Amino acid sequence: MAELVSGPQAPRLKRALRLRDLTLFYIVTGLSVRWVATAAAAGPSALVVWLLALACFFVPLAASVLELSSRFPQEGGLYVWTREAFGDFAGFLAAWMYWMSNLPYFPSVLYFGAGSLLLVAGARGHRLATSPVYFMSFAVLWLGIITLVNIVGLDGGKWLNNVCSTGSWLPILILVGLGIASAMRFGAATHFAAASFAPHLSVRNASFWSTIFFAFAGCETGSFMGEEIENPRRTIPRALLVGGVVLALGYLAGTAALLVALPSAEVSGVDGFMRGAAHLCTRLGLPWLSLVLAVLLALNAVGGAASFLSSTSRLPFVAGIDRYLPPVFGRVHPRFRTPWVAIATYGMAGILVAALGQAGTTVRGAYDVLVSMGIITYFIPYLFLFAAMARLQNRPVAAETMRVPGGRPVTLVLAWTGFLSTALTIVLSAIPADEEPHKAAAIAKVLLSTAMAAGGGIAVFAVARRKRSLAPATAFPEAR
Known about the structure:
The chain has helices at 19-30, 34-40, 45-71, 78-86, 88-118, 122-128, 132-152, 154-164, 166-186, 206-215, 232-261, 272-283, 288-312, 314-321, 340-356, 363-391, 407-429, 439-470. By secondary structure, it is mainly alpha-helical.
């Protein structure tokens, strides 16, 4: 039986992530090609929205992660930062909402991967496109593989992420090449008039705005594994810089390439990127390239699920060490030196959500509901993160801590810019799409699911706090 990480002879976590691994990790968590098609469907104004999301959300987020992970390089990231700024309850609730939000994310991103593969499967693929069993099986199978690989250790888990990262940047690189070739032979399919770049913030496209901001999230996840990164104070900033540049260029270049090559109406939907790329391949006489892209997009989906499962499972691990979850969550495997109970439990929870997500609805309906529920729940922890960044500016730091250039004034501007952008995104994400026939019911469903998730976390914390207050002090040794 594995020992608790806090025990005197406890096995320690293995520092398996180096600069290359963490850089590719940031790319696979942040660069999801499905959002490129979503953006291109909105026309040239999407390029401006990308830039707004970059300036108002990603830059503040990356700056906050850079400084907070340098202040507190321990395992747990967001959990530790919020706990240090606002206390145990806020830290636990931020972590709880984050890991709850990723449960619907796993099947939604894997449904995208499954849908991408179907386009090259011919008539059989068309039949499976409406099969809940196919989509559920794909998600369950890969979640099982991801869970097992990460239990065995980050030495294997990081290679899964590294390989799958090719499904993030390579399809966009291929798409840019196809777009250039198509434009040279057939001209641009989209007219880039000055007026077409003007973004419109309205009820009709509220969901689009929230999705674009959501696409830039994820760079905080690497810090959840702070004690599994070699020299995190040095590695995290360097990996963030490289990964952030790839992320920004990927979204902008991919969206522009689709707009040059195809009318926006041809690149919408769950499998919009794959359909648009396949159309380009056929037009340019490269039908075989569709198969390559389909496999790469499936890798992109698997990589997204793998990276978030491996990183987010560290949150219940640290909460288990602090005894706000059952102490078994804080166990480290004696051989693999991984938080195996937290990983296994989180993986099984993801599998359960994937299996239940198809109950009583269509594939497209399940996909949309899962994404909608995930967005609003996912963004609440960012309110805690940005508020913690602002709050902790009054606290002295160690000499080796890396600070945001410009000092406290710049840091506060970035923190509150990120906070307000996140708050706006939460409001926008609750607004249903135009095609939703029961708008009031849709809003109620999203808000109720979010309230239930928060209520569950509050209840778990209250029970754990009561047990802690009744237990002798010796029952809670120092976690580190």
